[in-house]
Write a structure and sequence with these properties.
Shape: globular
Strand content: 15-25%
Bound molecules: 7-methyl-guanosine-5'-triphosphate, S-adenosyl-L-homocysteine
Radius of gyration: 19 Å
Largest sheet: 9 strands, mixed
Number of strands: 9
Strand order of the largest sheet: 2-1-8-9-7-6-3-4-5
Order of helices and strands: EEHHHHHHEHEHEHEHEHEE
Length: about 325
């Protein structure tokens, strides 16, 4: 399990994993963007700032009207309306979408898999580029953030309802027209794209963001194969638990399109699995000398809680910007 110190505010703690090392815990952590973003202590109450910052959706906002998915799923305003298993997520609703009260919509999968806004913003800052593919867009947590740092966002999901919810939510944030929503299977998309080396619109892909399904909210509890001997520990999440294909296969598919990959994974991910994704074949620096490639693992903290890991590959990893 990934380790790190908890912080009063959201911070990212980076750890560089030498792809060739087997002892992944030995690299020293370095802190980034400490205290640059703050969250509210009480999820159930909006702060004044959130209220005044919220853009007013005018009835004449045509993008919002045509993408309006109101009614497709329930919009909860009271705890009493929320199914028992979603209550803990509803409690965090304004962490997911600071504009939740403007009508953001999530379905069940959306509730438990959305990237919280502060984390999505941090990832989007790291992924700043021309064209980014959000391979598993869900209800749009990351796509909305990417639309604020990237020129072109291609957001893919194979679930039509969720894609419509993503577009609805993007309209609330005023960025729907900056995102190309694609209903489809990323695996097929990647295979087709690889043959052409560029998107339909003739754009090369700079970055791919992977936030695949982890097997549902039970991802922390492991499978029969990886239960720990000590029952007090969380079992490790293995890349083989990723769906719709093995997490290694998914990464290799993305890597055929671009080396610049950000991979959003559970906090209990086996770091050796992550390290093993890096191949050093053919790696050279500008002078043609071999240079071992690295993956940077960023721990995503919210308050006292480690939420997830974002693993940066290729030119997204610090010190490897020349690979971009
Ligand atoms: P969590 O641990 O299920 O939630 O997920 P939380 O609120 O930390 O619950 P607790 O019981 O541990 O206190 C933590 C974060 O992981 C979520 O906010 C999502 O961003 C992300 N996440 C969770 N799941 C199950 C998925 C998933 O299947 N896919 C993706 N891409 N992200 C997920
Ligand atoms: N990052 C998202 C959450 C992603 S959850 C957010 O912040 O909102 C994972 C998503 O992957 C789900 O919406 C699911 O429908 C989608 N998905 C599953 N298999 C897929 C596939 N083969 N191709 C594209 N999307 C897929």
């Amino acid at each position: 399990m990934a380790k790190g110190k908890s912080r009063p505010n959201f911070t990212g703690v980076s750890r560089f994993l030498d792809a060739l090392k087997t002892d992944t815990e030995s690299a020293p952590p370095s802190q980034i963007s400490d205290s640059t973003v703050k969250e509210t202590d009480d999820d159930s109450r909006p702060t004044k700032k959130q209220k005044t910052d919220a853009p007013k959706l005018l009835p004449s906002d045509s993008a919002y009207q045509s993408y309006d998915a109101t009614g497709l799923v329930p919009f909860y305003t009271e705890f009493s309306q929320v199914p028992e298993d979603l209550k803990k997520y509803f409690f965090q609703r304004r962490r997911y979408f600071s504009l939740y009260d403007n009508g953001c919509l999530l379905d069940r999968v959306g509730w438990y898999s959305i990237t919280p806004e502060l984390i999505a913003n941090q990832i989007a800052e790291r992924c700043r580029c021309d064209t980014i593919v959000d391979a598993f867009c869900g209800v749009g947590g990351n796509a909305i953030a990417f639309a604020q740092t990237c020129e072109h966002v291609i957001a893919i999901d194979n679930d039509e309802t969720r894609l419509r919810l993503a577009r609805h939510n993007a309209a609330i944030y005023g960025v729907a027209d900056r995102i190309e929503f694609v209903l489809g299977d990323f695996i097929q998309f990647a295979k087709t794209l690889f043959g052409r080396g560029e998107t339909r619109q003739g754009r090369a892909v700079d970055v791919i963001f992977l936030s695949p399904p982890w097997g549902g909210p039970s991802y922390l509890h492991g499978t029969i194969q990886n239960l720990p001997s000590d029952a007090s520990e969380h079992p490790e999440f293995r890349l083989s638990d990723v769906t719709p294909v093995h997490g290694l296969e998914l990464f290799k598919l993305a890597e055929r399109i671009t080396p610049n990959i950000a991979y959003y994974l559970p906090r209990n991910t086996n770091l050796q699995d992550v390290s093993d994704l890096v191949t050093n074949a053919g790696a050279c620096n500008a002078k043609g000398k071999e240079k071992a490639r690295m993956v940077e693992v960023e721990e995503e903290w919210m308050g006292e809680k480690l939420k997830a890991l974002t693993c940066y590959f290729g030119g997204l990893a610090r010190g490897q910007e020349d690979l971009f």
